[in-house]
Each structure stands twice: as C-alpha cells, then as structure tokens.
Amino acid sequence: MDFFILAAILLLLIPSRPVEFNPEYISMKQTNIIRGFFLLLVFMIHFCQYIQMNGPTDRIFQFWRTHSGQLVVTLFLLYSGYGVFVSIMKKGTPYVRRIPVHRVLRTLVHFDLAVLLYLAAYSFMGRTFSMQKIFLALLGWESLGNSNWYIFVMLILYLITWFAFRILKNSPIPSLLFITVLTVISMYILSLHKTDYWYNTMLCYPAGMWYGFFKEKIDVKLKATKNYILAALILLALLLVVYKTRQQICMYAIGAVVFALVVVMFTMKMQLGNSLLEFTGKHLFGLYIMQRLPMALLQHTAIGANAYVYAVVCFLLMYLVGIGFSWVCEMVDEKVLGKIFS
Hints:
This protein is mostly helical. The chain has helices at 2-13, 28-47, 59-68, 74-91, 93-124, 131-139, 149-167, 172-191, 204-222, 225-244, 249-268, 275-282, 284-290, 292-298, 307-341, and strands spanning 17-18, 270-271. Helix 5 (93-124) runs antiparallel to helix 6 (131-139) and helix 10 packs antiparallel against helix 11 (249-268).
C-alpha cells in the first residue's frame, strides 16, 4: 500500500504550487481536493480490513495507519461545519428551516439506497439479517457491511444545528455555543453505546462552524508571515502534546481538531489544483459509501487472492460503482425528493 499512499501524496502536490497566501484556501474547489485526498486514505484503511497488508512495501502505510487513527475524516467534518455555517449566515432562516429535509432527509434517503444495495449483495452471497438489524441499519445505527458511523453522526449534527439555530433565532454566538455543548453531550451518549471511533472526531464539526465565524479575523492575522509561523508552531506543538496523551478521549478529540486546523493552514500556503482529487471530492458521498461493496464481493474470489490486483480492481470499481450510485442519487433527488423540496 506504500505505492498507493505515495501516489495520493503526489496527486495532492501535482500541480499544486506554494503561494504567499491562498485567498481561496477554503473554497469549494480547494476543499474538494482535500476531501478527495483523504477519501483515498480512507479507501486504503478500509481495504486493509479485508486483507492483510504487512509486507515490506506496506511499511509507510502501516506507520500512517497506526498513528493516524480517525484523523482521515476530520476534514470532512470540519468542512461540513464550515459550509453549513456559511450557508446559514448567507441564506438565513429559510435555509435553517430546510435543514431537516435538505440535509437530514436527503442524506438518509441516499444512505438507505446504499444500505439496500449492500443488503441485496449480501443476500446474493447467502447471508441473512434479522428485520431488527435491517431496520437499525437503515437508521445508520447498525451496519450490513457498509460504512455507517459517519453518516449517523452527520445526521445527528445536522439536527443539532437545525435545533440550535431555530430556537436561538440564528444568533451566531449563542447558537454555536449551544451546538458545541450538544455535540459534547452527543459524544457522551454515544460513548455509552459505541466504540470510540464513533464520536472522537465529532468536535471537528462545531470547530468548522467556529472557524467560519472567525474566518475574516483569522485571515487578516495569518496573512502576516510571522503570525502564520507562530500559529503553525503553536498548533504543531499542541498536536505533539495531544498525540502523547491520545489515549484519553478528550485529548484525542482535541487532537482531531488541531490536526484538521494544521491541514487548513497548509492549504493557506498551497494553491491546490489536481483535477482527479477535485472530481473525487465532488463525489465524496457515493465514493465513500460504496467503496466497501467491491471489497466485500471480491474478497474470497481469485481476484482477492492477489493483494495488489485486488487493490487495483477495488480502486477502479470504487469509481465505477460510486459514480453510478451518485447518478442514481441525483435521479432520486430530481424525480422523488424534488417534489418534497419544492
């Protein structure tokens, strides 16, 4: 897998170029490229759950996998929080009122379409599931082989956002404080029922919202090189401290936010431009939710017998199946959900 991780890094850096300050560092184009990069890392981590990758050409990846944990999803959460906050500030109450339909219902419908595809695939392979498990899988609480925790968490965060901004009348600071508190409470509740990867990165979402609130002031300060260097050194030092104490869940949660901010600071100084990563980031949901399907279907076949052939085929099928699924979701939005949205 070292080849894959090095290829992903090269894609990120080519044709990127360093700049004094990138004013578009958190634009849709730039964030899609970062999303695309981390989606490739997620693919690698998921892939290694289906086959052992402990050879001499897997050492770099295994080092990253061992020390990164859930950090690969932190930017997804931070960018989501940032994007939702900016949309609320631009569009106001009408946008907030539509969150249960536009964000929650739409995401859940798309997710359930994926769950049904996984159910059909596993049924074809001879596996059966109880009605209770299928019902809970459709809510994201259980899995039928698909990725589910991230979607469940995002549904909760969207609902928290809607609730906070509705009852506090779109007042930014009280709403953000309330969202942060509710996120911490949600983390605690999840900790009673689920393992730590379900909740240890959730703070990145309200952190993205706070970043959106302070962005203009942050940009003014960090355009000065000495301020940028100082901020970068502080974040890196903090990241080192929380890494040393990462066994404590509160420190891991803080470290997740710090890591995401380090990446954001990296993009301030780099003009990213890789079109493949941008394309990947644009189709994040479909590629993320469907990438496990080829892995599961091919695991015990002749293709799965060779780790590298298996990896390449699964990688290509991730795009084929994921883009096809994205197209299906667009059709559902247009033909079915469009009537609800209108």
